[in-house]
Specification:
Belongs to the binding-protein-dependent transport system permease family. CysTW subfamily. It is a multi-pass membrane protein. Pfam families: BPD_transp_1 (PF00528). The protein is mainly alpha-helical and 280 residues long. The chain has a single domain, classed as MetI-like (MetI-like fold), CATH 1.10.3720. The protein is 74% helix and 0% strand. It has 12 helices and no strands. The longest helix is centred in the first third of the chain and has 32 residues. The protein is globular.
Length: 280
């Protein structure tokens, strides 16, 4: 058995990597956010919180991000629940793992390539052309909230399925059988037993999806065409076009702060679910 001192020494490389890749960039971003924009663009040393006051000028981007992230996470969970429950409780052995492999199969291809596939599918020569040929009229999907929502759901649905599969799989079959023996049907058992027991998993899945979607950049850029403006797009524009690095860093720090709040609230709600006896 390892001595405590030896165990701490073995953890040092991991701590060093964490400090280099996570803490270091966060501190750098915070320092830049307290500076000011140089006359020619970029960063100039200063000590000011004016950039954080100017974050409100990007309120539209924050509002779009929160709305579409909340909506996308909710739709992903609603779509994932029946699939994850079916895999967890109705598939066994090699069939279960084959289906799980098919769920994660899209991750074996480039995220950019998959997003571009939707760009062409929702473009004028894709789905709108098919609907017009059928006689349903002319539709425009690209560069709309609908296109961004489709891209978000497609990209993040596998994550929701995997996380909810774990939550449902942890629920013992004996609890479902006991509920059925007490006269409850399958639908009543699902809503009165399965959902309450899986509530902590549902909360953690929603919060993770919301955090991931809040930092999304590529999908709004390609499928939204700049008309659906996420905070990630605002940060890129501030750094690359306006070259206002301090304001861009302040917006990034504000976004990370929002994610931390969401993660903190998620922990609170999960503890409330546990304390209320919703999980055994």
């Amino acid at each position: 058995m390892l001595q405590p001192r030896m165990a701490r020494l073995l953890l040092l490389p991991g701590y060093a990597l964490l400090a280099l890749t996570l803490i270091g960039p966060l501190i750098t971003t915070l320092v830049i956010s307290l500076g000011r924009r140089a006359p020619s663009g970029g960063y100039e040393t200063a000590l000011s919180i004016e950039n954080f006051a100017s974050v409100l000028s990007r309120s539209t981007a924050f509002l779009n991000t929160v709305q579409l992230s909340a909506f996308g996470a909710a739709i992903c969970i609603l779509a994932a629940i029946p699939v994850a429950f079916f895999i967890a409780k109705h598939l066994k052995g090699s069939v279960r793992y084959t289906v799980l492999f098919l769920v994660v199969l899209p991750f074996f291809t480039s995220f950019v390539a998959r997003t571009y596939a939707w760009y062409f599918a929702l473009g004028g020569r894709g789905l709108p052309a098919v609907l017009e040929w059928i006689g349903l009229g002319r539709f425009r999907f690209l560069n709309t909230d609908f296109a961004v929502a489709i891209g978000i759901i497609y990209a993040y649905l596998p994550i929701a399925i995997l996380m909810l599969f774990v939550a449902f799989d942890r629920i013992g079959d004996d609890l479902l059988e006991a509920s059925n023996d007490l006269g409850r049907g399958k639908v009543e058992t699902f809503f009165s037993v399965v959902i309450p027991l899986a509530m902590p998993g549902l909360i953690s899945t929603y919060s993770l999806l919301f955090i991931l979607l809040s930092g999304e950049y590529l999908i709004p850029m390609l499928l939204g065409g700049g008309k659906v403006y996420f905070i990630g797009n605002a940060i890129v524009d501030l750094f690359l076009q306006s070259r206002n690095w301090p304001l861009g860093s302040a917006v990034a720090i504000s976004l990370m702060s929002m994610m931390i709040v969401v993660a903190f609230l998620s922990q609170i709600f999960q503890r409330m679910a546990n304390r209320d006896g919703r999980i055994g």
